[in-house]
Design a protein that fits this description.
The chain is an alpha/beta fold and about 220 residues long. It has a single domain, classed as Peptidyl-tRNA hydrolase (Rossmann fold), CATH 3.40.50.1470. The protein is about 35% helix and about 20% strand. The protein is built from seven helices and seven strands; from the N terminus they run αβαβββαββαβααα. Strands 2-3-4-1-5-7-6 form a seven-stranded mixed sheet, with helices on both faces. The longest helix is centred in the last third of the chain and has 19 residues. The chain starts with a helix and ends in a 6-residue tail after the last helix.
Length: about 220
């Protein structure tokens, strides 16, 4: 049995009555944003995934509220596809626990999981859609791979750039960032939100062709 199957089995008894039976088979996609809960991390580069999902929820006029498997969730419709947005509250490095349990419960295949996260290896203002591959040193992505037992899910990587020399306390990723109107970081959050919707609506190949380039190209 796969790791996701084992996780699902462990949660079955506790959550069986939480949702109507038909709901389990009608969720088409899960979109997970990586970040850390708590006011002290709000607005930080490491919470880029959370911020992208917050924008998508606002655009769809829904609110995060329901808690499932140590994550806060919202449900949206993207081109007729019922989609769950989830922000794990397990802290960044254990994001996979929440995400794997949610996929197992709703029987969503791994290829219909989109994980949105910050990316040190991309300059600010850039995004890149990727299917599968390694974790590139990202502990949150590593956690998801470990929990699912496979790397074969879609990632929307949002560039935050390299930290300055001597950044021993990880201030580059953990301190709040002042995002002014029209700044490139804000542009990249909007593009990442659009990219998520394009993956669901247009398919992975078309979305990659459109968004895997510099903004304005």
């Amino acid at each position: 049995m796969s790791r996701i199957g084992r996780l699902f089995g462990g949660f079955r008894r506790k959550t069986q009555s939480d949702e109507p039976a038909e709901a389990h088979s009608t969720i088409a996609w899960v979109v997970a944003g990586l970040g850390n809960p708590g006011k002290e991390y709000a607005g930080s580069r490491h919470n880029t995934g959370f911020m992208v999902l917050d924008r998508l929820a606002r655009e769809k006029q829904v609110e995060f509220g329901r808690r499932r498997f140590n994550g806060v969730t919202a449900e949206v419709d993207i081109s007729g596809n019922r989609t769950i947005l989830v922000k794990p509250e397990t802290y960044y490095n254990r994001s996979g626990d929440c995400i794997a349990a949610l996929l197992g419960y709703f029987k969503v295949p791994v290829e219909r999981l989109i994980v949105v996260h910050d990316e040190l290896d991309l300059e600010p203002g850039r995004i890149r859609i990727k299917l599968g591959g390694g974790d590139a040193g990202n502990n949150g992505v590593h956690s998801v791979i470990e929990a699912l037992g496979t790397p074969d899910f879609i990632r929307v990587r949002v560039g935050i750039g390299k930290p300055p020399p001597g950044d021993a306390d990880h201030g580059h990723i953990l301190r709040p960032v002042n995002r002014g109107g029209g700044s490139r970081p804000d542009d990249s959050l909007d593009r990442a939100m659009e990219a998520v919707q394009s993956i669901v609506t247009d398919g992975l190949s078309r979305a990659m062709g459109r968004y895997n380039q510099r903004s304005g190209e």
